[in-house]
Structures are given as C-alpha cells and as structure tokens.
Amino acid sequence: MLYYLFDWLHQYNFPGAGMFQYISFRAASAIVLSLFISLIIGKSVIKKLKKAQIGETVRDLGLEGQLQKKGTPTMGGIIIIASIIIPVLLVTKLDNIYIILMIFTTLWLGCLGFADDYIKVFKKNKEGLSGKKKLIGQIVLGLIVGIVMCFHPDVIIKEKNTTINQQVETTEVISADEANQTSNVFSRIPAQHNSTKTTIPFVKNNEFDYAWLTNWTGDKSGLLSSLVYILVIIFIIAAVSNGANLTDGLDGLAIGTAAMISIGIAVLAYVSGNSIFADYLNIMYIPNIGELVVFIAALLGACLGFYWWNCYPAQVFMGDTGSLSLGGIIAVLCIIIRKELLIPVLCGIYLIESVSVIIQTGYFKYTKKKYGEGKRVFLMAPIHHHYQKKGLHETKIVQRFIIIGILLAVISVVTLKVR
User: Residue 126 has what pLDDT?
Assistant: First the structure.
C-alpha cells in the first residue's frame, strides 16, 4: 500500500518518494517493520494468551526442564504471521503473482495450524487436528501452488543463451533510433515462458526439466510433466512443513533455524531475480522475482522478533500456527526460485529431524515384529531430544543447531559457484 502511495507521490517529485522504487530500501523497511511489530504486539499477545489460559500441556518424558514449561502460552505463531503479513501489505507490489502466492500460503497454513492448536487448547484434545486433515490441507496448497507455477502467465523464466547479445535487456528504456538498430539483437534473445525447469545444485549444466521424466509419452508429455511437477510440489510442501513442525521442540530451535534458512533464500532469490547477477553466475533468470526479497526480509524480521520472546526460557511457543506456516513458507519460496532440489542442504536441520523420527519409528516396528520387543536407534526422537537425554542442556543444543543452520545456508549460497 505504501509502495503505491509513494509511487504516486514520486510523480509529483515528492522528496524521498523515489526510495520506494528500490528493492533494497523496501527490504530494509520490511525487516525493521516486521521486527518492530513482533516486539510491540508480542508482549500484548502473550498477555492475552496467558489471560485466556492458553497454555502448553506437557507430558512427562523425563527431559530436563520439561515440566517447568507447563502453562507457557502457545499459539504464538499469530505473532509471526502478523509480523509477516502487515509489512508485506505495506511495502510490496501487491500485483506481483509471487507476493500473492506467498500471502496465500502464509494465511492458509496459518489457519491450518491455528485449527490444530485450537483443538488442542480449547477442545482439550491432545491429538489436535488429525494427520489426515493436515495432509489434505497441505495437498490443497500444493495443488494451488503447482497450478500457478505451471500455468499462470506471469510465472516465467528466461532461458540462458550463450550468445553475447543476451546481455542486452529487453526492459531497458531506449530511443526509437536505438530500437531500430537493436531489433535484430532482441530477436535473438530467448523468449520468456512458463516452464517446469528447476536447478540442480553442484552440477555444471545445472538445469533440470521435469518434462524429461515424461518425454517417452510423446504428445502427452507437456500435460504429464506439469502433473509430475505438481506432485513434486505437493510432496515438498508437506515434507518441509512437517519437518519444521518436528523441529519445534526446544526453546528457539525452530525459529532460529528458520531465520538462517531465510537469509540463504534471500540471497538466492536476489541473484535469481537480477539479470546482471544471473548472467554473471550463469544461473536461471526469473523475471519479477526480486519482489520476493522484500517478503523474505519480512519473514526474517518476524523470525528475529519472535526469537526475542521464544529464546530460553521461552515466554511463548509458536505452536502449529507458527511451525506449519514457517515450513510451508520456506518450501514454497524454494519452489518459486527454482531451488527446491537444494532443500536437503538448505533445510538440513528439518531433514535430520524428520529422518530421525522415520528411523526411530521404522526400526521400533521392525524389531517388535521380528523379536517381539521394540528397540530404538536413538534415546528419543526427534534427534534434539536424543541429545537432551544424553545430558546436554537445551540452550547448547539449540545454539549448535543454529550454527549448523548457518553453515548449511552458506553452503547453499556457495552452490551458485561450486559446480
């Protein structure tokens, strides 16, 4: 909203109005606004949650300091969502399809997580929303995101071209004479179009088209490749969203790792949306994606602001309202910037947490069926509880996981050059 106001004022040479034309300025504004909102409304929300007796119910699992968390307000994900949505509405271009998609993703998963928390807190049902219903919600989101990515006219990529003339930008303002002189150059620049292509990390010719998986079908390849792409998107959203949910088990762990991931995605989005950097790094250029940097800046500010209240000892928990939203937001961001195959590295913490649960559950069922008694690989799963059982204090575990998250974010950015 402020973007359009200052864009209008800029036409009348209003001092400073032109600053809103720059993504860097609006991204900085989004971080400050988001952080400010988190700190201001956070205190008020925590008081209201306490007054409404919306506290965490805790099962005694023999973990140090666990019982002291009983009664800590939950559903704090409301703070995160508000701190993202308000700055985004204020400083982004709201007609950008990627911003629209991210706002929808945030609100959709926020509502899904809120429903789960509501059932746990107010209905006194510890199971919350059933896993099946959560999955249906994630599938619906995946379908919508997939259809938009495949068929929306504004979701386009620009093919890389080895011709030196590709450095000329079709968006540059030129005179009529220059246009006549360069028309032959522009004709050789590849068209922008919808695509099911993505990026493979650590590979030199690093573009992969999902259409390759369906080439054997002949004329039906186009439609089937879109279907495959949509199914992949559904899987990624469900996996990352649930991975973030599993990670939310210690004070500051889920929000701290999400902040590190956000920084990595911001860098990847910026270079992918800048034609000069994309050309220099020889990566896929995605027009109009630079606006996502402003959204990611708001996400980062929300994470840092919530960390203020959620660091040990936590004054509020995000609940599924926050964890499902964070995971889904990160997944959709990676899909939009065509870096979803980088998720195992960038979101390595989520992957480790999820895999530890899969291994623990699978091995327990296998040994129980074979030997009549279930055995465990870890002392407890997810893996952060394993380290708690080994005697490490949760603050040490959280800080070490965040350090690992920083390292993984750096590695993810380095993949732009390491091939």
Answer: 78
